[in-house]
Amino acid sequence: MSRFQVVSGKGGTGKTTVAAALALALATEGRRTLLVEVEGRQGIAQLFGADALPYEERRIAVAPGGGEVHALAIDAEQALLDYLQMFYKLGGAGRALKKLGAIDFATTIAPGVRDVLLTGKACEAVRRKDKQGRYVYDHVIMDAPPTGRITRFLNVNDEVAGLARIGPIHNQAQAVMRVLKSPQTAVHLVTLLEEMPVQETADGIAELRAADLPVGHVIVNMVRPHVVDEETLRTAATGRRKEIAKTLTRAGVTGSAALVRPLIEQAAEHAQRVGLERGQRAVLAGLGLPTAELPLAGDGVDLAALHDLATELRKQGVGEGPDASGGTDS
């Protein structure tokens, strides 16, 4: 199974919720997952009802079977200080640069630098092992930037490796890309059954494939149930109001046209929505990727709802595959 799982999606599709549910799903039976946030929104803390996450790995949930979900909100400035200490032993000098505002300048003025730091920190967690040579985390899940910029975000180290042809920066960028382009990684895209998110998902998949980045599942989120059978859908879609009115009367629904008309209109709207959703499902089916569906949480998403979504992801095999635990780095 992929040890590094990246979750992206168009804004509003619920990618943070899906990333959190996936972390719970993969932390079953005693496994440990790290859920990484890179956009500074503290969305993970809100979902788990926790305080704002600091720049340190912290346990935020326990999964069925005793597994643990840890979380980390990566701060680009702190990651740069780590980087300077790791490769150049500039711990004190780095802190002095921070006081002068140079660190903030570097991570703000050059978005590529920021992305290098964020992806590098996440990949370090993927590769990290304990003293016994075992991976510290069985899985690392990243709540990543939106679909529109996910390929550039993940591929930035390839550009850096080409610019810096020798030295620690080049070596670090290559090490990150070895993780990102290996079977250890899967990029999942979250969408809704709506035209714009589906089109952006299709475009994102094409970009990821062109960059040789491994695509995992398409996860259709917030799927609403179909509340009528096929025959009723056909009847509602054709607008046969008299036939519908007679059916309602036989079912004991009597009254004026003012009562029947709104019911018919709602049924017609439902039939239209179902038709549109089926069209988008056909588009997704043509992408040639495994697809999973998560139901709409009618009462909002809390920790109980996250566990329910995690169960659905486990049932549908998202993130699962041949066991890669205990393997070596690529």
UniProtKB/TrEMBL annotation:
Residues 3-180 form the ArsA/GET3 Anion-transporting ATPase-like domain. It comes from Streptomyces nanshensis. This is ATPase. The lineage of its organism: Bacteria, Bacillati, Actinomycetota, Actinomycetes, Kitasatosporales. InterPro entries: ArsA/GET3_ATPase-like, ATPase_ArsA/GET3, P-loop_NTPase. GO terms for molecular function: ATP binding; ATP hydrolysis activity.
